[in-house]
Design goal:
There is one protein chain. By secondary structure, this protein is an alpha/beta fold. Helices cover 29% and strands 20% of the residues. It binds flavin mononucleotide. The site of flavin mononucleotide (FMN) has 15 residues, from helix 1, strand 2 and helix 2.
C-alpha cells in the first residue's frame, strides 16, 4: 500500500506523512490543491477506511515533508524491510515527523 501510495503521490507532486498507531491512521498530505482534492476523494472511496475524518485543511507557506512522498511513522516491528522514510515511534507513540504533522 505504501509503495503504491508513494508512487501515486510523487506523480501528483504530493508529499506527506502517515502515522499508524493503536489501529488508527493519521495522515498529512501537502501539494497542489487539485492533487489534494483528487487524493482526498480517493481516500474517501477506499473501503479499507472507516470513520474517515478531516482534521484541518488550508494553504501553507512551505512543505513540511519536502523529502517524502509519504513518510511513515509506526511501530519498529513494522519496519521489516528497512524502508526509506520510516520513523519508529517512541513509547509515547510519536516521532518528530509525526509531531510536525500535529502542528498543521
Ligand atoms: C491509511 C491509508 C492511506 C493511504 N494513503 C494514500 C496516499 O497517500 N496516496 C495514495 O495515492 N493512496 C493512498 N491510499 C490508497 C487510496 O485510498 C486509494 O486506494 C488509492 O489512491 C487509489 O485510488 P483510486 O482507485 O481512486 O485511484 C491510502 C490508503 C490507506 C488505507
Amino acid at each position: 500500500m505504501l509503495s503504491e501510495a508513494r508512487a501515486k503521490n510523487a506523480a501528483m507532486h504530493i508529499t506527506g506523512h502517515l502515522l499508524y498507531t493503536k489501529e488508527v491512521f493519521v495522515q498529512c498530505i501537502e501539494g497542489p490543491s487539485e492533487s489534494i482534492e483528487s487524493l482526498w476523494q480517493s481516500l474517501q472511496k477506499d473501503t479499507r477506511h472507516y470513520d474517515i475524518e478531516l482534521l484541518a485543511r488550508g494553504p501553507i507557506d512551505a512543505r513540511k515533508f519536502n523529502d517524502w512522498s509519504m513518510a511513515f511513522s509506526s511501530y519498529p516491528s513494522l519496519n521489516r524491510y528497512n524502508m526509506p522514510g520510516f520513523f519508529p515511534v517512541d513509547e509515547s507513540g510519536m516521532t518528530q515527523a509525526a509531531e510536525q504533522c500535529a502542528t498543521v
